[in-house]
Amino acid sequence: MDQLWKTFGDFVALKGVSLEIKEGEFVCFLGPSGCGKTTLLRAVAGLDLQTRGTIRQAGRDISNLPPSRRDYGIVFQSYALFPNLTIEKNIAFGLENARRPKAEIQARVKELLALVGLSEQAKKYPAQLSGGQQQRIALARAMAVSPGLLLLDEPLSALDAKVRVHLRHEIKELQRKLGVTTIMVTHDQEEALSMADRIVVMNHGVIEQVGTPTEVYRHPSTLFVADFIGETNQFAARALGNDRLALAGTELVCAPHICAAGDEVMAVIRPVDIIPHGDGARSPGAPDPIGTPDNLVEVTVEEMEFLGSFWRCRLVSPRLGEKRLIGDFSLNAVRRLRIETSGHLQVELPQNRVLVFPKAA
């Protein structure tokens, strides 16, 4: 797709979006409500034509083709199964419309039911299946005609958390087996990080960043991406050079950045990147031996919240001003260092994990 624009009256939903998706790739459009991700998906599907711009699929210009002439299958949030048809009839619907031979239809339906693990449900109706089973049938129906592109519009958002986790693994495995190019719209970061080959992070109708899950999580290109994907600590600071900053009167080393010395910036570090060292990692005023941790800060534990696989700790320190620092510490670290509410410890803010972005206007 090249330079896609979409306007609704005076509102601009897409602003010159350009993106190339490789064959067999699983791509997630990720962003908050109103960012343009669903508008972009609908433009690809031909359900809501772009105002201007070009969309090509397998070298063919499909920019102005109706949905019926585009090579894709689609699964909506609501599944949209036909309630009056059996499961096997739902899957066969597209094949029958394409006037495929009866024997071919039966074989394809049997194959897909086995693929999604629902062979024994063929004669049932949608209302007799669970939400997760209905979603798998919707996927099987979309895949029945062997489309060149699979479009998923928040397919798991109507399901409970445990079923979502199970189904996202199944969908990814199915996509890998079939090798079908897939675009999924979601606002769920965990869903995108666990399923996508690449994530397209959108905001206000533009693409903020395109990258692998690791890239957008570990190396966000903008403050919006850092803030939207995962938890972050953010501090107003001042750049002192390309790898140093001043925060509440304290000088810290940070990852290299492009901000000029003296610029007002935002320093960002994720709670999971903060490393607890206990209260004796280094004595105040002692010389720095080789291998001393970066940015050691003495903190007091103000509050602890148990979240199953880790403890979320709210930390305070005069060196950080009035801002609280949130650290996510493993159960083993909390036990080993005897971290407790009102206790004292030193934490490390690793240089390569302290990211710096220009301060938003």
Automatic annotation (TrEMBL):
Pfam families: ABC_tran (PF00005). Keywords: ATP-binding, Cell inner membrane, Cell membrane, Membrane, Nucleotide-binding, Translocase, Transport. The keyword DNA-binding does not apply. One of its GO terms (biological process) is quaternary ammonium group transport. SUPFAM superfamilies: MOP-like, P-loop containing nucleoside triphosphate hydrolases. The keyword Nucleotide-binding applies. Residues 1-229 form the ABC transporter domain. GO terms for molecular function: ATP binding; ATP hydrolysis activity. Belongs to the ABC transporter superfamily. NCBIfam families: PhnT2 (TIGR03265). This is Amino acid ABC transporter substrate-binding protein.
